[in-house]
Amino acid sequence: MNEKALKVLEFYKIREQLKNYTSTGAAKDLIEELKPYDNIYEVREHIQETKEAFKLLVTKGAPPFEGVYDVREGISRAGKGSTLMPGQLLKIAAILRAARRFQEYISHKEEEEGFRVLENISQGIIPLKNIEDHIFMSIESEEQVSDRASTALYNIRKALKDKNSSVRDRVNSLIRTYSDYLQDNLYTMRGDRYVLPVRAEHKGAVPGLVHDQSSSGATLYIEPMGLVNLNNEIKELMLKEKAEVDRILAYLSNEIYGSIIAVRNDADIIWELDFIFAKAKFASELNCTAPKVNDEGIIDIVQGKHPLIDRKVVVPLDVYLGKGFTSLVITGPNTGGKTVTLKTVGLLHIMALSGLMIPARENSTVSFFKEVFADIGDEQSIEQSLSTFSSHMTNIVNIINKADDESLVLFDELGAGTDPTEGAALAVSILENLKSRGCRIVATTHYSELKVYALKVNGVENASVEFDVETLRPTYRLLIGIPGKSNAFEISRRLGLADYIIHDAKENINSETLQFEDLIEDLQEKSVKAEANAREAEMLKLEAAKIKDKYEEKMGSLQNAREKAVINAQREAKRIIKEAKEEADNILKEMRELEKAGYASDVRHKLEEERRKLAQKLDKIDEKVNKVKRDDGEELKNVREGEEVFVPSLNQKVIVISKPDNKGNVQVQAGIMKIEVKLKDLRAVTGAVNKEEKKRVKREAKLNLKSVASSVDLRGMDSLEAVYTADKYLDEAYLAGLKEVTLIHGKGTGVLRNTITDMLKHHSHVKKYRLGEYGEGGTGVTVAELR
């Protein structure tokens, strides 16, 4: 697609709007490269993916992209074997979690409608839950590695905490000892070492190492000799802590390096999905629909709106060509909306060919074009000494050299900027040449000669933008089939021009010309009404066909369910009969063995016993078969409206919506369908309580109290999801008998921490709560004590 058309039709503004709906910079880069695709297959597939994402947004809400970032740099570094920072590891883990959750998000029941294109994309996702869980367990925030990352780190930090406590006790003792020589009765830190602020004149009174002095020189920061060894021990522990943290980060980075292909693959898929859902969110915001795409040059845009005009004021328009005619000549007054019509047709096509849904009604149709050419606007160049006419003609020459039967050509004020007679003749010649090549053309003009051309030539149709003479304002409605009138006389009269001047002007125009224009206008209005009725009938026909297909599909699924139920019943019956035959064969075999042994009294007794077994077995088989039949429910003699009953032939519960007629037929509601069945085919609904009890028991069985962890990770969740997860976890922890639990929310902006704190204030299981201390996760966690 030529860049000039993308620029003139302002497609770059659409791309900028799309970027507002993405979560990652990688998706923004994909949007920056977005342009019309090269073949109709790709166009249809990308429109379908946008349509599927739109449907998922409506039915399931936003996709699970919370906490997803652009981590291309981190993945690139991991691919080279570098050690990543905690923040980079967290972001990569968030990508892996989003990829795994998206597979769950897009899953659906077998009988539900699928999402073919998005399912194909998500099939490439490789779940890496072990790496994901390991990172989230080990990394607490973008700067902090968790104590849980390793036993060694936990022990080091515990020792560091104890050592700091000892040093503080020792420092406080020294402050009391040297209080007379200190600037202030407090300690401070210099280079991770505890020091005392000693007045310069008393530096000899406090033996130790001088680490710093105040800007005035009045205060020296001295490390007392009694603290040197303790400070050294703390420094040693801090070095050990740093070494262990580096080891953990290197280990986690190496895990990513070991699965770098899968990580890179998952990230690429998530960024592509982010791009696709940005298109869907944009479509939702502008109330767009997925157009049909054909390769026959047929255009039928119904109630199309220009996406860059304020939705409160934009006027929808209907544009069609490609069936009865291939060229459309639009006339009408200035500021009437002719140029907007051109831009709307061009921009909606470029959007559709780029895989976007368009702001138009259902069943709108666009055609696949390899090129869209647009000569719109005044591009005169002072530097190149080009006039308006010259600049237009330069562009038109380029169009004529390249346009073919797979091109859409848009002309604004064709032939303008020169002598009207020559300009009109040139315009007709250009249109005729392009029409003969099979181009689809939409052109605007003021020339009456082009109206006549459209009336005379097959394959060319007039159109106009409506103008309200009463208010002297355009309505911006496009009327196909009606050539535009200048209305100069009427407008001049309403603006106050004297009648005698208008009368003299009319005298200068051939009366036959005026009558001819009035006659044409009358005929064209009738033609437009007929065309509008025909198009409306076609739309209704398409909608009826769509509804028919929908119900036939539903009937098919019901028929499949019925056949499946019959097959299952037959399979069960065959299994029962097979078991009975095997049992009977075994009993008969034993009976023959007994007969061979003779008929002693004890043998006859055994024979009778075996015969009794056989009879009991057959009775049980009969009982099972009868039970299968009875499970359909009790046959009903009468029903009432609104009653829930069971239809064995459909294997489905239905609602009765009418009383039996004289033929014994009853109308019932099965889902969204209303069907008619015989009263004798209905059965009473039984076993509902047992099913509910079964469900309840099943739910209770899921709670394994012994497996409840002592902490829950809420990072990356939004407030609602975090509160729900925390509440559910506290219930499980309370039932499991835990006394103290940890809620990990990270530091971040503090929004998630405040949300969790507000919830804990009023939770019935929480006795008290506090922020984590050093070694527990600090302000990145909240510790709750349960009742």
TrEMBL record:
<dbReference type="GO" id="GO:0072344">
    <property type="term" value="P:rescue of stalled ribosome"/>
</dbReference>
<dbReference type="GO" id="GO:0004519">
    <property type="term" value="F:endonuclease activity"/>
</dbReference>
<keyword id="KW-0255">Endonuclease</keyword>
<dbReference type="InterPro" id="IPR007696">
    <property type="entry name" value="DNA_mismatch_repair_MutS_core"/>
</dbReference>
<dbReference type="GO" id="GO:0019843">
    <property type="term" value="F:rRNA binding"/>
</dbReference>
<dbReference type="Pfam" id="PF00488">
    <property type="entry name" value="MutS_V"/>
</dbReference>
<feature type="coiled-coil region">
    <location>
        <begin position="502"/>
        <end position="631"/>
    </location>
</feature>
<dbReference type="GO" id="GO:0005524">
    <property type="term" value="F:ATP binding"/>
</dbReference>
<protein>
    <recommendedName>
        <fullName>Endonuclease MutS2</fullName>
        <ecNumber>3.1.-.-</ecNumber>
        <ecNumber>3.6.4.-</ecNumber>
    </recommendedName>
</protein>
<dbReference type="GO" id="GO:0030983">
    <property type="term" value="F:mismatched DNA binding"/>
</dbReference>
<dbReference type="InterPro" id="IPR045076">
    <property type="entry name" value="MutS"/>
</dbReference>
<feature type="domain" description="Smr">
    <location>
        <begin position="712"/>
        <end position="787"/>
    </location>
</feature>
<keyword id="KW-0378">Hydrolase</keyword>
<dbReference type="Pfam" id="PF20297">
    <property type="entry name" value="MSSS"/>
</dbReference>
<dbReference type="InterPro" id="IPR002625">
    <property type="entry name" value="Smr_dom"/>
</dbReference>
<dbReference type="InterPro" id="IPR027417">
    <property type="entry name" value="P-loop_NTPase"/>
</dbReference>
<dbReference type="InterPro" id="IPR005747">
    <property type="entry name" value="MutS2"/>
</dbReference>
<dbReference type="GO" id="GO:0045910">
    <property type="term" value="P:negative regulation of DNA recombination"/>
</dbReference>
<dbReference type="GO" id="GO:0140664">
    <property type="term" value="F:ATP-dependent DNA damage sensor activity"/>
</dbReference>
<keyword id="KW-0540">Nuclease</keyword>
<dbReference type="InterPro" id="IPR036063">
    <property type="entry name" value="Smr_dom_sf"/>
</dbReference>
<dbReference type="InterPro" id="IPR046893">
    <property type="entry name" value="MSSS"/>
</dbReference>
<comment type="function">
    <text>Endonuclease that is involved in the suppression of homologous recombination and thus may have a key role in the control of bacterial genetic diversity.</text>
</comment>
<keyword id="KW-0699">rRNA-binding</keyword>
<dbReference type="GO" id="GO:0006298">
    <property type="term" value="P:mismatch repair"/>
</dbReference>
<dbReference type="InterPro" id="IPR000432">
    <property type="entry name" value="DNA_mismatch_repair_MutS_C"/>
</dbReference>
<keyword id="KW-0067">ATP-binding</keyword>
<dbReference type="InterPro" id="IPR036187">
    <property type="entry name" value="DNA_mismatch_repair_MutS_sf"/>
</dbReference>
<keyword id="KW-0238">DNA-binding</keyword>
<dbReference type="GO" id="GO:0043023">
    <property type="term" value="F:ribosomal large subunit binding"/>
</dbReference>
<keyword id="KW-0547">Nucleotide-binding</keyword>
<comment type="similarity">
    <text>Belongs to the DNA mismatch repair MutS family. MutS2 subfamily.</text>
</comment>
<dbReference type="GO" id="GO:0016887">
    <property type="term" value="F:ATP hydrolysis activity"/>
</dbReference>
<keyword id="KW-0175">Coiled coil</keyword>
<feature type="binding site">
    <location>
        <begin position="332"/>
        <end position="339"/>
    </location>
    <ligand>
        <name>ATP</name>
    </ligand>
</feature>
<comment type="subunit">
    <text>Homodimer. Binds to stalled ribosomes, contacting rRNA.</text>
</comment>
<comment type="function">
    <text>Acts as a ribosome collision sensor, splitting the ribosome into its 2 subunits. Detects stalled/collided 70S ribosomes which it binds and splits by an ATP-hydrolysis driven conformational change. Acts upstream of the ribosome quality control system (RQC), a ribosome-associated complex that mediates the extraction of incompletely synthesized nascent chains from stalled ribosomes and their subsequent degradation. Probably generates substrates for RQC.</text>
</comment>
<keyword id="KW-0694">RNA-binding</keyword>
<dbReference type="Pfam" id="PF01713">
    <property type="entry name" value="Smr"/>
</dbReference>
